[in-house]
Design a protein that fits this description.
The chain folds into 2 domains: 91 residues, Gcn5-related N-acetyltransferase (GNAT) (Aminopeptidase, 3-Layer(aba) Sandwich), CATH 3.40.630; 175 residues, Gcn5-related N-acetyltransferase (GNAT) (Aminopeptidase), CATH 3.40.630. Helix content is 27%, strand content 34%. The chain has 7 helices and 14 strands. A 7-stranded mixed β-sheet has the order 6-9-10-11-12-14-13, sandwiched between helices. A hairpin with a 5-residue loop joins β13 and β14. The protein starts with a strand and ends with a strand. 39% of the residues are buried. It binds coenzyme A. Coenzyme A binds next to α1 and α2.
């Protein structure tokens, strides 16, 4: 068996999941044939790109044979069904996107947010509330969990999340708000570079959630090395109030045994009264 999901909001994106052949039938070409036929079906439905995640060595090999490419620093594979490379597809995805607006996030954002969360971003920390890091600076150890890291922040009354979406439903930015036990509210978010003007709106809406819940101040936990993000937050009225816990960037350093190790980068806390 295998399953494909087609995005309800943006039916040109699909996700491949739950593949399996019963153990006694493995190695006979069943997965190759079945998955290949399923990809042809997706193409016929008008799907432009299929995403999936795996760390399984046999499946990994099969996906490559079927035309998927692994994205660097992730367990995510993607196939553009018109033959473009994964990188071309991701660059074109945002280049061809129109204007976007910010509104509350919902579950239909899941598939349409994959291109955003797997594209290398120049900020190390994309969303500290969700623990979402940029593939440019840190290895991703999950595929399906990537979007859920942020989605889970808005899953109860103590949090909220917001999406910047184009008219056709591409997610080009995300933000989250999480109420802290001390009565303040932690906000964070990120945007695709072309949409940086929307960070203002994303963070303002997250902050408005905090104040609507009685928070007197909102704060953000940034990497001290993410200067561009820090300047944008300063432009929104946030001021540095002190250090904050380090962030761990996985896969950035070789130790003396030439093993890859994580490194820590210092955090800083910025705050704004609301
Ligand atoms: C991954 C899985 C679906 C492959 O199914 P399958 O029907 O055996 O696949 P195929 O027979 O089409 O084989 C595909 C390729 O993998 C190879 N292969 C299959 N089982 C293998 C094994 N145990 N070790 C090494 N290679 C293997 C086949 O030889 C073939 O390669 P080839 O075309 O170069 O000969 C199956 O092993 C499975 O169900 N695994 C458990 C569930 C799982 O992990 N799914 C993937 C989650 S992302």
């Amino acid at each position: 068996m295998c399953e494909f999901y087609v995005s309800r909001r943006l039916p040109i994106l699909s996700e491949f999941t739950y593949p399996g052949t019963r153990p006694e039938f493995r190695g006979q070409g069943i997965a190759t044939e079945l998955w290949g036929a399923a990809i042809d079906d997706m193409k016929a439905l008008g799907v432009q790109a299929i995403f999936l995640g795996t760390n399984h060595p046999v499946a990994f090999r099969l996906y490559r044979l079927l035309g998927f490419s692994k994205l660097p620093g992730t367990l995510t594979f993607v196939q553009a069904l018109d033959g473009r490379s994964a990188e071309e597809f991701l660059v074109d995805w945002f280049r061809d996107a129109g204007p976007a607006t910010v509104s509350p996030g919902d579950l239909d954002d899941k598939l349409p947010s994959y291109p955003l969360v797997v594209s290398p971003h120049d900020w190390q920390v994309l969303d500290a509330n969700g623990g979402l890091m940029s593939t440019r600076y840190s290895l991703h150890h999950t595929f399906a969990g990537l979007y859920m890291k942020c989605a889970n922040v808005g899953n109860d009354e103590n949090g909220a999340r917001f999406s910047a979406r184009t008219d056709d439903g591409r997610v080009v930015g995300m933000s989250t708000a999480r109420l802290d036990v001390d009565g303040s509210c932690a906000v964070d978010g990120f945007v695709q570079h072309r949409y940086r003007d929307l960070l203002n709106d994303l963070i303002e809406q997250a902050a408005a959630f905090g104040s609507s819940q009685g928070a007197g101040a909102v704060h953000a936990h940034l990497s001290r090395e993410d200067n561009g993000k820090r300047r944008l937050f300063e432009g929104l009225g946030f001021r540095e109030v002190g250090p904050a816990p380090d962030f761990v960037l996985d896969g950035l350093q070789l130790n003396q045994k030439r093993e890859i190790e994580p490194i820590s980068v210092p955090g800083l806390k910025m705050e704004k009264q609301v």
